[in-house]
Amino acid sequence: MAPDKPTGTTGFPGGRVKIRGDLFIDPLKYSVNKHTTEHLFWEHFEPGSQYF
Question: What's the pTM value of the predicted model, to 2 decimals?
Answer without folding.
Answer: 0.45
